[in-house]
Design a protein that fits this description.
Number of strands: 20
Number of domains: 2
Number of helices: 1
Order of helices and strands: HEEEEEEEEEEEEEEEEEEEE
Distance between the termini: 57 Å
Radius of gyration: 22 Å
Shape: globular
Largest sheet: 20 strands, antiparallel, barrel
Strand content: over 45%
Helix content: under 10%
Structural class: mainly beta
Length: 303
């Protein structure tokens, strides 16, 4: 009887949060490959509020942070500014791209850290061989991305950054003969720290980190991550018809799908409002008692 009551309680919570959802959508169009938005977005202002009571009223509340992003017509991120209420993690970045869609310069500041960079790209015919980042003030080489080919096809990408006065590799991406990512290897002090393995269509399937930790992924019919399982915890995700996460279940059992629901230790709900171009403009996060915890407001400007 106890298990039945728990299942009914979980079902009622789920229904209660989901009934707040305002806009019903159908999968009529896919999101852009280089943006997390539908349609051509010029500017996005994201305001993040923390809610301390059971209401959804945010008037007279100061946001925890405000993020302003700008994009060019090709979807490249040209600006990213994040202002926190406590000013502890403020970021201000600007990027300029050339006609080939490659970044040529950037300005980045993080609190007191400020870096101005210029980028140089080396080609052989139409093949991009190297992309180098230089500190504009000292003209020192700070990072390199190397592209390696098998005949005419790209087979690997290596990222190196300046560390202890030398360039050290931090990531390698390996591609299949059809150009699909098959493995990503990350390094810490030139030693492998993480390996991600992908399937034949470029979806991450297994992630290894540390000596023993392994994360397994499964997907739904739309390509969204359905389950995520590591050595200690498991997650199950649900999405709306545009691929935005609506429900996340956290399990502490070695079974992803619990037959009784007894091993569910956390549920997180998200409810969205959308504009006419099918991009969300309001997202509310609820806890398992359906009490709102955070609200994010997005203002989007289109080309």
């Amino acid at each position: 009887m106890k298990k039945i009551i728990l299942l009914l309680s979980l079902f009622c919570l789920l229904v209660g949060c989901k009934t707040k959802k305002i806009t019903k959508l159908t999968r009529l169009e896919a999101k852009s490959s280089n943006l997390d938005f539908n349609r051509s977005v010029k500017k996005v202002i994201l305001t993040h509020y923390s809610i301390n009571d059971s209401t959804e009223i945010i008037s007279d509340k100061k946001p925890l942070f405000v993020q302003i992003q700008t994009f060019d017509v090709l979807g490249n991120l040209t600006g990213n500014k994040v202002t926190h209420q406590d000013k502890s993690n403020n970021i201000d970045a600007e990027y300029i791209f050339d006609a080939s869609n490659k970044v040529t310069s950037s300005k980045f500041s993080y609190n007191t850290l400020q870096i101005n960079s210029i980028y140089k790209h080396q080609y052989k015919g139409k093949k991009l061989l190297n992309s180098e980042e230089y500190n504009q003030d000292t003209n020192s080489l700070e990072a390199v991305t190397k592209y390696k080919y098998n005949a005419k096809k790209l087979k690997s990408i290596e990222h190196l950054i300046k560390k202890d006065s030398s360039l050290q590799i931090i990531e390698t991406t390996l591609l299949s003969s059809s150009g699909i990512i098959k493995e990503v290897i990350k390094y810490d002090n030139s030693k492998i720290s993480k390996r991600d393995l992908y399937d034949s269509i470029g979806r991450i399937m297994i992630s290894y980190s540390g000596p023993t930790n392994k994360v397994l992924y499964t997907y739904d019919k739309h390509g969204n991550i359905a389950t995520e399982k590591d050595n200690a915890y498991s997650f199950k995700y649900e999405y709306d018809s545009y691929g935005n996460e609506t429900v996340r279940y956290l399990f502490d059992s070695d079974l992803v799908f619990c037959p009784t629901g007894d091993c569910i230790i956390g549920i997180r709900y998200h409810v969205y409002e959308y504009d006419k171009k099918k991009n969300w403009i309001k997202k509310i996060e609820f806890d398992r008692q359906c009490i709102p915890k955070t609200i994010e407001i997005r203002t989007l400007e289109y080309y």
